[in-house]
Amino acid sequence: MRDLVSIHKIGFRLLRKIHQVDSLIIPLHLLNVCFSLVRVYAGLFLTAGMIDDLLAGDYAKAAGLAIALLFTELSAGTVIHLIKRKTKGYDHKIWLIFYVWLREKAFSLDYETMERQEVSEKILFSERTADMHGSLGVMLYHYCNILEALLNVLLSFFLVIGLCLARPQKAAGPLGALALPALSLILFAAVLAGMALCSFGVFRRFASKQMEIFTSHTGVENKLSYLLGQIYGNSRTGKIIRIYDMAQMLLENTGREQKQSISYFERMCDVGRQEGDANKATSSVFMVCSYLLVAVKTVTGAITVGAFTRYAGAMNQFGNACFTIIESHGRLREICTYMQEFLAFLDTENLHAKGSIPVEKRMDGEYELAFEHVSFHYPGSDIMVLKDVNCKLNIKGKLAVVGRNGAGKTTFIKLLCRLYEPTQGRITLNGVDIRKYDEEEYRSLFGVVFQDFKLFAFPLWENVTAGFPRCGERIWQALRQADADQMVEKMEKKLDTWLYKDYEDGVEISGGEAQKLALARALYKDAPVVILDEPTAALDPRAEAEIYARFNEMVEGRTSIYISHRMSSCRFCDDILVFEDGRIAQRGSHEELAAAKGSYAGMWESQAKYYA
User: Burial level of 411, CB count in 10 A (0-12/13-18/19+)?
Assistant: First the structure.
C-alpha cells in the first residue's frame, strides 16, 4: 500500500504540473474517456433491445433502436475523433515540455550546483529513460486508461450484479440451481476473487524482474548514447579518429555495449511475454466462467437473448478493464520510478545564496571589486586552489593575471564572476559582499572570454549578440575590434551566416576565427568589466599583434582583466598580479616586477627571446 501511495503521489504531482502548463489538456482527455464509455454502453443497451424487438417481431421499434444506435455511434465517434485530433497537438506539447522543464531548471541552477556529478546524473537519467520508455504523455495516457477502466469496472459491475440477481423462469435441475441469485452471486464472487489473486500474484512476480532490468539497462544506454551522439554524430571528432586510427577500437566498444543492450532487451521481452501469457491465461479462465454464467441465465430464462449480448458485453468489459488497470498500473510504476529522479532534479536547491540587492547602474562604469582573505577549494576536494587572496582591482585599470599552470588564475576569475563562491573570505563590489546582489544583475557587469569558450550552431550575429538586441553597427564595431570583420565580410551571408553544419549549411571556422568571434561577443555586451582568459591562445603571431594593437580601444573606459601565459601581453597592462601556488606572490607594474628578480622576472626572461 505504501508503494502504491508513493507511485501515485509522484504521478499526481506531475499531473498538476501538466495542468499548470495548459488547463485544457487533462479535461480534454477526461472528456474523451466519458464519450468512449457512452459509446460502449449505449451500444450494449441499444443492441440488446434491438435483438429482443426483432425476435418479438416489433420491427418498427427495432428500426428506431437501430437509428438511435447509428446516431450514437456517429455522434460519439465524431466527438471522439475531434477530441483526439485536438489532443494530438497537446500530447506533442507535453512531450516537449518535459525537456523544457529540464532545461529551465538547469539554467536556474548556479554553475557550482550544476557541476555536481549527482545533478548531471539526474539529468542524463531523466532524458535517457524518457527517450526509452516515454515521459509525461505516456504517463497521462496510462492514467486515462486507468480512469476509463475504473469507470468501466463500476458500470459493468452493476450490470453483472443485475445479471446475478435475475431469477430463472425454469428453476428445475442443476442449471436452474446455478441460475438462482444467491448461488450466482457466490460463483461470481469466487471467480472474481480467484482472478484478482492470480493477477496480483502475476504482477508481484514480474514487477521486481522488470524493475531490475529497467534500472540496470539505463547505464548501458548512457554509454551507447555517448558513442552514437557525442562521437559518431560529431563531425569534429572525425579527424582525431582517422589520425589515430581509432575506428576499430570505437567499433569494438560499440559492439560490446550493443551486445549488452540487446541482452537486456531480450530479457525485457522475455519477462514481458511471460507476464502477458500469464495474464492471458487468467483472463481466459475468467471469460469462460463469465460466458458460462450468462449462458446459464439465458437457458434458464432469467434473461432474454438480447440481454445475453448486453451481459456478455458487460462481462467482457469488466474483465478487460480489470487487466487494463493491472497493466497500466505496472507501466505507471515503471514511469513514476524514473520520474522520481526527474522530480528530485526539479527540487534541487542552489548551493549559492540568493541575493536580492540590485546593482547600482553607473554611467561612469566605476565599480570597485575586492578580494578579502579569499580561500577556495572545489566541491569534492580538500585541496585549496586559492589561499588567503587579498587584492583590490583598480577602477578602469588594466590588470594582467599571470602564473604557471594550476596557480589559480582561472579559479580567481570564476570566483570573481560568481560561478563559485569562496570557501572562506568574501568578494565585494563597492564594499558590499557580492552574494547579497541579485546574481543576474551582478553578472551583467562582466564581458568574459573564457579559455574554454563555446560558440553555437546559430547565425553568426546571434553568437555575437548572445541574446542582447541586434544592432548592426555595434556588431561590426565589435568584430572590427576583435579583428574578425574581414573574415565575416568574406562570408556570403555576412552576419546571417550560420556557424557549423549541425542544423544548416553553415561554415566551419578555425580555432583562431572562433576565438575572435568569442572576443567580439564579450565586447558587444559592452560590460564595465572585461575579462580575457587566454584570448589569443589560438591566434597566429600576426593576428595576436593586431589584437594587442587594438587592446586600448577594446577596453577603453572599462576595468579589464587579462590572463595569459604569454608575458608580452603584460606590456599592455598597468597592473600585474603574479599567482603562485594559489597565492598572490607579487603585484606591480611590468617595470617594477621585472626589476624585482622574483618569479615574474624569471618567467619574463624565459620567454623574452621569443618576443624581444
Answer: buried
CA–CA gap between residue 351 and residue 420 (Å, rounded)? 9
- Distance, CA of 75 to CA of 282 (rounded, Å): 36
Partners of residue 398 on adjacent β-strands: 560
Q: Which residues, listed in sequence order, are joined to residue 376 by a DSSP beta bridge?
A: 386
Q: 181-240: per-residue pLDDT in tens?
A: 787 788 777 877 777 777 767 666 666 666 666 666 555 666 666 666 666 656 566 657
Q: Distances in Å between the alpha carbon of 166 and those of 62, 94, 173, 193, 230?
A: 24, 48, 17, 21, 68
Q: Grid coordinates standing for 265? A: 532487451
Copy the grid coordinates of residue 140.
497521462
Write the burial class of residue 39 (CB in 10 Å: 0-12 exposed, 13-18 middle, 19+ buried).
middle
Contacts of residues 55-62 at CB distance under 8 Å and 24 or more positions apart, as own/partner, are 55/304, 55/305, 55/306
User: What's the pTM?
Assistant: 0.67
Residue 129: exposure state from Cβ atoms within 10 A (0-12, 13-18, ≥19): buried
CA distances from 398 to 124, 410, 438 (A): 42, 17, 26
C-alpha triplet 579, 583, 556: angle, nearest 5°:
50
Starting from the edge strand earliest in sequence, which strands make up the sheet with 424-429, in order? 386-393, 369-376, 424-429, 432-433
Q: What is the pLDDT of residue 484?
A: 85
Predicted pLDDT of residue 540:
64
Residue that the C-alpha cell 461470481 belongs to: 188
Q: Residue 375's pLDDT is what?
A: 92
β-bridge partners, 334: none
Q: Which range has the worst mean pLDDT, 141-145, 348-352, 501-505?
A: 501-505
Query: Phi/psi at 507 (nearest 5 deg)?
Result: -110, 140
* Residues found in the chain: 612
Band of residue 101 on the pLDDT scale cut at 50, 70, 90: confident
Q: Which residue carries 416489433 as its cell?
A: 58
Q: How far apart are CA 302 and CA 300, in angstroms?
A: 6
> In 301-456, at which residue ranges do the beta strands (DSSP E only) sit?
369-376, 386-393, 398-403, 424-429, 432-433, 446-449
Backbone φ and ψ for 92, nearest 5 degrees, come out as: -65, -35
Contact partners, residue 83, CB within 8 Å, separation at least 6:
28, 31, 32, 35
- Helices (H), ranges, 300-402: 305-346
